Each structure stands twice: as structure tokens, then as C-alpha cells.
């Protein structure tokens, strides 16, 4: 520890810098993923990434808030009177089908359709104007949506607000992960990128706690507070983004070579940046040859990135995580918990989600992406099978039966073990891996595909869950478990390790891979080497 950290006249910057480096594993070492550029993790880059990561708050806040709000009676009575009446009159004893209502789920899931469409527009803004303006735009639109929702007088205002929130999420999710992966030094890219997921989980937890509080407000306007408070995360990212520097990759891509050099020196904390700078320029030259990113992404040589960029977000949603995130209170009610206990259990899973994400932050650049994916997959499979088995034993297929306290405790325990597994694997890596595998020329387009696939399947799960629970009953957990088996095998066979590989050198990993190498011809290798100024080197 530097003396500054232990002395009373502490130099906070030196101390913070030490802490950051210590968190990243002491002296920065090459993790063995390939080429290594000089430089260290500077306080400047740490803060830039911290501010950018707050873009995850708006996504997280929304995930956490909508489930709770849609279970508040005053909200249902005002906007969805039929659902409210049905719930009141429903005397059925089948626990599985108590909450099956399409109209209500549309409220939750409409946002994700808006986000899906918006991410395609965000792709152009991110590429042409730079990453920070996408974040700013996303924050401001989200803010307007939050005001509309908080003040909603009718369903129209509510839905319009949801659409604006969705546009905000689409822009933020498109730009933030790319920004983080470009700013970070290769060997710490995982850690800094996961800041995004950390903010998502923090947003979810805050929303859960806020719902817990506002549900108790007398007079039936608690839901307004929950919805309106979304202005807070929106203001944080809108204002924060104005202070963000552009990434060197984006500066070069937009023709600001000198600024890019300066920025690289500043974020790497060294003057020895020429090697990295030259590689960024070469990557940018190559990207200039690409006039139509959307047509190019279809080329055979990009097939590995395209397939992985589509399957990772698809699989992330098929883990079934959002069943817990959106419907935890409903799910816990189905398991026989009372109202308060259900909301409290949702808070518990929120806390587990946040803290388990830290494990990923600390290990992703040491263990690598693959190990976390594989371990998380096995853990999720075992725990969700246990939840399915426990529900089958008590509720059977009739959906009738009650849980003792101890039995419910066991259920919550396995749900928590499941959330933990997700939180250090598919949660953060679902955003990290797609943001780091696409070469510059198709990065924005690739990230839009990632966001839109993610949003589409978030929409599908949000929309279908209550009906699926009603029909599949406890087997719903085995359904998601089966998908977890598929995705874990996919990772084992088809995902190359990307830890420590510089982002503009990522093309190397495919050529070395047993399966993907067949998609990259010798001509592609030669073409790329010429672009990178190394015509005679091999992959
Ligand atoms: C996923 C969300 C999920 C959240 C839970 C994110 O990575 O994209 O769909 O709700 O993790 O923490």
C-alpha cells in the first residue's frame, strides 16, 4: 500500500489508484490472451467507465420497478380495471393460474419492443456521432418517459411513457457496453465492462426497495412515486455522459487522429501508445472500406461473431432469469408466500444478484469467460431443477397445496443459488462477450443485433411467462433447465476464450478455433495482415 493510503494526510487520488489496481489483482499482468500493450489502469479511465456504466441503472430500474407496480391494486384499478376485477373475483384455488393476464404483461413487455427498434437507430448515432451522444440521447428520452409515467392520467400516457423509456434503454444498452470495452485496457476489459451489469443489478435492487416502500403509501398513489423516481437514474446518465471523453477507437473512426492519440496517452497513463495507436488506425482503415455495415456483417468471415452475437443474448434470456426479475413477487405468491413476504423475498434475490455480480468483476479477467459460463450453467441447472422438484412435490399438477415455513425457506434458498449462478455468468457475460467480439467496422451493427435479440426475447418471456406457468406448471423450471443444458454445451464447444485479447486483435481467436477457423480463408488472413501493416505474419 502506498504511504499516502495509510497516512492521515492522505492523497486520495494516489490512494484510489492503488485501490483500483489492487482490486484488479495488484500489478497489472498480461493474462495470456495474446498481445499486450503498455499502460495501466488510470483513475481517469476508471471514472470514465464508472460514469458510463451508470447507463445500466435505467435498464435495471425499469426491470425492477414494473413487476412491483403491476401488482399494486390502486394501479390496476386505475389503468386495468378488468384485470383488477378478475383478480378480485377469482376464487380458483389453482395457484399456477392466478395471475394469467395478457393485458397486464403488455404493460411490462411493451418497453422491450421499443428498445428493440431504437437500438437500430442507436447504431448509426453511436458510429457517426460517437458513443457518448447515444448515452446522452438515451438518458434524456428515458427522463421524459419517466415524467410522463409518473404523471399518467390515462393508459395512453402510460404506454407513451413506456415507449420513451424503451427508446432510452435501447440507446443506452447499445452504446454503454461498447464504450466500456473500448476504453478498458485489454487485460481489465472484463472487470470494467461488468460495471454495466453491476449498475443493472443495483438499479433492480433500488427499484425493489422503492416498491416495497411505495406499496405502503396510503391513498393509492404509491405507484406514481415508483414510476416517477426513474428520473433519478435518467438524470445521472444524461448529465454524466456530457462529461465523458470519446473512446480513441471512435475518435479515429471519425477522423480525429490527434485527439485520439492524446486520449490514448491519457487513458493508458503512458506516452508509449504507438503500438496500440497503430493497431487502432489499421482497424479503422479496414473499417472505412466497409460502406454498409449491415450488408457486411452477413459476410462469411464474420459468421462466428454473428452467430455468437445472436445466440448469447438469446440464451441469456432462455436461462429464465427474468421470470425471477419481473415476477418474483408473483412467483413467491404462487409458492404460497403472503404479500409482504413476497416483496421481501424479491428484495433478497435483488441483494444476492448485486453481490454475486462482484464475484464476476473480480474473477472474469483471471479465470476467463468460459470458466464462469460453464460453472454458472451447472449451478443454474441444479438449482432450477431443485425448485421444479420442490414445487412438483407440494403443488403437483393441480396447483393446490400449501408450503410450510421451512419448505418455503428451501425454495427461496434454491432461487437464490440460481440467481447467484446467473449473476456471475450469463448476466454480465451476456453483455460483455458480444461487445468485445465484433471488429470495429461492424461493431455498432453487431451490438444492435445483440441488444435487439436480447430485447425481443425479454419481451417474449415477459409476455409468455404467466401463461407458461399456468400451462407448464412446475415443469416450467425444467423447460428453462433444458435450455441451460443446451447453452452450456454450446459455450463448451463454440466459445473461444477472449480474456486479455486486445479488442482490435480479436480476429485472431477465430482463426485458432477448431470450428470457426473454417470460416476464415487464407485470403481473409492476408487481407487483414496487409491492413495491419504486417503482410508476412501468420495468425
Ligand atoms: C439481463 C436482464 C436481467 C438482468 C438481471 C441482465 O444482464 O439482460 O434481462 O433482468 O441481467 O440482473
From TrEMBL:
<dbReference type="GO" id="GO:0015293">
    <property type="term" value="F:symporter activity"/>
</dbReference>
<dbReference type="InterPro" id="IPR020846">
    <property type="entry name" value="MFS_dom"/>
</dbReference>
<keyword id="KW-0813">Transport</keyword>
<feature type="transmembrane region" description="Helical">
    <location>
        <begin position="448"/>
        <end position="468"/>
    </location>
</feature>
<feature type="transmembrane region" description="Helical">
    <location>
        <begin position="192"/>
        <end position="210"/>
    </location>
</feature>
<feature type="transmembrane region" description="Helical">
    <location>
        <begin position="342"/>
        <end position="364"/>
    </location>
</feature>
<feature type="transmembrane region" description="Helical">
    <location>
        <begin position="103"/>
        <end position="121"/>
    </location>
</feature>
<feature type="transmembrane region" description="Helical">
    <location>
        <begin position="158"/>
        <end position="180"/>
    </location>
</feature>
<keyword id="KW-1133">Transmembrane helix</keyword>
<keyword id="KW-0769">Symport</keyword>
<dbReference type="Pfam" id="PF00083">
    <property type="entry name" value="Sugar_tr"/>
</dbReference>
<dbReference type="InterPro" id="IPR003663">
    <property type="entry name" value="Sugar/inositol_transpt"/>
</dbReference>
<protein>
    <recommendedName>
        <fullName>Major facilitator superfamily (MFS) profile domain-containing protein</fullName>
    </recommendedName>
</protein>
<dbReference type="InterPro" id="IPR045262">
    <property type="entry name" value="STP/PLT_plant"/>
</dbReference>
<keyword id="KW-0472">Membrane</keyword>
<dbReference type="GO" id="GO:0015145">
    <property type="term" value="F:monosaccharide transmembrane transporter activity"/>
</dbReference>
<dbReference type="InterPro" id="IPR036259">
    <property type="entry name" value="MFS_trans_sf"/>
</dbReference>
<feature type="transmembrane region" description="Helical">
    <location>
        <begin position="133"/>
        <end position="152"/>
    </location>
</feature>
<feature type="transmembrane region" description="Helical">
    <location>
        <begin position="474"/>
        <end position="495"/>
    </location>
</feature>
<dbReference type="GO" id="GO:0016020">
    <property type="term" value="C:membrane"/>
</dbReference>
<keyword id="KW-0762">Sugar transport</keyword>
<feature type="domain" description="Major facilitator superfamily (MFS) profile">
    <location>
        <begin position="48"/>
        <end position="499"/>
    </location>
</feature>
<comment type="similarity">
    <text>Belongs to the major facilitator superfamily. Sugar transporter (TC 2.A.1.1) family.</text>
</comment>
<dbReference type="InterPro" id="IPR044778">
    <property type="entry name" value="MFS_STP/MST-like_plant"/>
</dbReference>
<feature type="transmembrane region" description="Helical">
    <location>
        <begin position="41"/>
        <end position="61"/>
    </location>
</feature>
<dbReference type="InterPro" id="IPR005829">
    <property type="entry name" value="Sugar_transporter_CS"/>
</dbReference>
<feature type="transmembrane region" description="Helical">
    <location>
        <begin position="407"/>
        <end position="427"/>
    </location>
</feature>
<keyword id="KW-0812">Transmembrane</keyword>
<feature type="transmembrane region" description="Helical">
    <location>
        <begin position="306"/>
        <end position="330"/>
    </location>
</feature>
<dbReference type="InterPro" id="IPR005828">
    <property type="entry name" value="MFS_sugar_transport-like"/>
</dbReference>
<feature type="transmembrane region" description="Helical">
    <location>
        <begin position="222"/>
        <end position="244"/>
    </location>
</feature>
Amino acid at each position: 500500500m502506498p504511504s499516502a493510503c495509510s497516512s492521515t494526510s492522505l492523497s486520495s487520488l494516489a490512494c484510489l489508484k492503488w485501490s483500483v489496481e489492487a482490486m484488479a489483482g495488484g500489478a497489472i499482468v498480461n493474462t495470456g490472451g495474446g498481445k499486450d500493450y503498455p499502460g495501466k489502469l488510470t483513475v481517469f479511465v476508471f471514472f470514465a467507465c464508472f460514469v458510463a456504466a451508470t447507463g445500466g441503472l435505467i435498464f435495471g430500474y425499469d426491470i425492477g420497478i414494473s413487476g412491483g407496480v403491476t401488482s399494486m391494486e390502486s394501479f390496476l384499478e386505475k389503468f386495468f380495471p378488468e384485470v383488477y376485477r378478475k383478480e378480485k373475483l377469482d376464487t380458483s384455488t389453482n395457484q399456477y393460474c392466478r395471475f394469467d393476464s395478457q393485458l397486464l404483461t403488455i404493460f411490462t413487455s411493451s418497453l422491450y419492443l421499443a428498445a428493440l427498434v431504437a437500438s437500430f437507430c442507436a447504431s448509426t448515432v453511436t458510429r457517426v456521432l460517437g458513443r457518448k451522444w447515444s448515452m446522452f440521447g438515451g438518458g434524456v428520452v428515458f427522463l421524459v418517459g419517466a415524467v410522463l409515467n409518473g404523471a399518467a392520467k390515462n393508459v395512453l400516457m402510460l404506454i407513451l411513457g413506456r415507449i420513451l423509456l424503451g427508446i432510452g434503454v435501447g440507446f443506452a444498452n447499445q452504446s454503454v457496453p461498447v464504450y466500456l470495452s473500448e476504453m478498458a485496457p485489454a487485460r481489465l476489459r472484463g472487470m470494467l465492462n461488468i460495471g454495466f451489469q453491476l449498475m443493472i443489478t443495483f438499479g433492480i435492487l433500488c427499484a425493489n426497495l422503492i416498491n416495497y416502500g411505495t406499496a405502503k403509501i396510503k391513498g393509492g398513489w404509491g405507484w406514481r412515486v415508483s414510476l416517477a423516481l426513474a428520473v433519478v437514474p435518467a438524470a445521472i446518465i444524461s448529465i454524466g455522459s456530457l462529461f465523458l471523453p470519446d473512446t480513441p477507437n471512435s475518435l479515429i473512426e471519425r477522423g480525429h487522429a490527434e485527439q485520439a492519440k492524446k486520449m490514448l496517452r491519457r487513458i493508458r497513463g503512458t506516452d508509449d501508445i504507438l503500438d496500440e495507436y497503430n493497431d487502432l488506425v489499421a482497424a479503422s482503415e479496414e473499417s472505412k472500406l466497409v460502406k454498409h455495415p449491415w450488408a457486411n456483417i452477413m459476410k462469411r468471415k464474420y459468421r462466428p461473431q454473428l452467430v455468437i452475437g445472436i445466440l448469447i443474448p438469446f440464451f441469456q434470456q432462455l436461462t429464465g432469469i427474468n421470470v425471477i426479475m419481473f415476477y418474483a413477487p408473483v412467483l413467491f405468491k404462487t409458492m404460497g408466500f403472503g404479500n409482504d413476504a413476497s416483496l421481501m423475498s424479491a428484495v433478497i434475490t435483488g441483494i444476492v444478484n448485486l453481490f454475486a455480480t462482484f464475484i464476476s468483476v473480480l474473477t472474469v479477467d483471471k479465470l476467463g469467460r468460459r470458466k464462469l459460463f460453464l460453472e454458472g450453467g451447472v449451478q443454474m441447472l441444479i438449482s432450477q431443477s431443485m425448485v421444479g422438484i420442490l414445487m412438483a412435490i407440494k403443488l403437483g399438477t393441480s396447483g393446490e397445496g400449501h408450503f410450510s415455513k421451512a419448505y418455503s425457506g428451501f425454495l427461496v434458498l434454491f432461487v437464490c443459488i440460481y440467481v447467484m449462478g446467473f449473476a456471475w455468468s450469463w448476466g454480465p457475460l451476456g453483455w460483455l462477450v458480444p461487445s468485445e467480439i465484433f471488429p470495429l467496422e461492424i461493431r455498432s451493427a453487431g451490438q444492435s443485433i445483440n441488444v435487439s435479440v436480447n430485447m425481443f426475447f425479454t419481451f417474449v418471456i415477459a409476455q409468455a411467462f404467466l401463461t407458461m406457468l399456468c400451462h407448464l406448471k412446475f415443469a416450467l423450471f425444467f423447460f428453462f433447465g433444458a435450455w441451460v443444458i443446451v447453452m452450456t454445451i454450446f459455450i463448451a464447444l463454440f466459445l473461444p476464450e477472449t480474456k486479455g485479447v486486445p479488442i482490435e486483435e480479436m480476429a485472431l481467436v477465430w482463426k485458432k478455433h477448431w470450428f470457426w477457423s473454417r470460416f476464415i480463408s487464407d485470403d481473409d488472413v492476408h487481407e487483414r495482415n496487409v491492413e495491419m501493416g504486417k503482410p508476412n505474419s501468420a495468425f
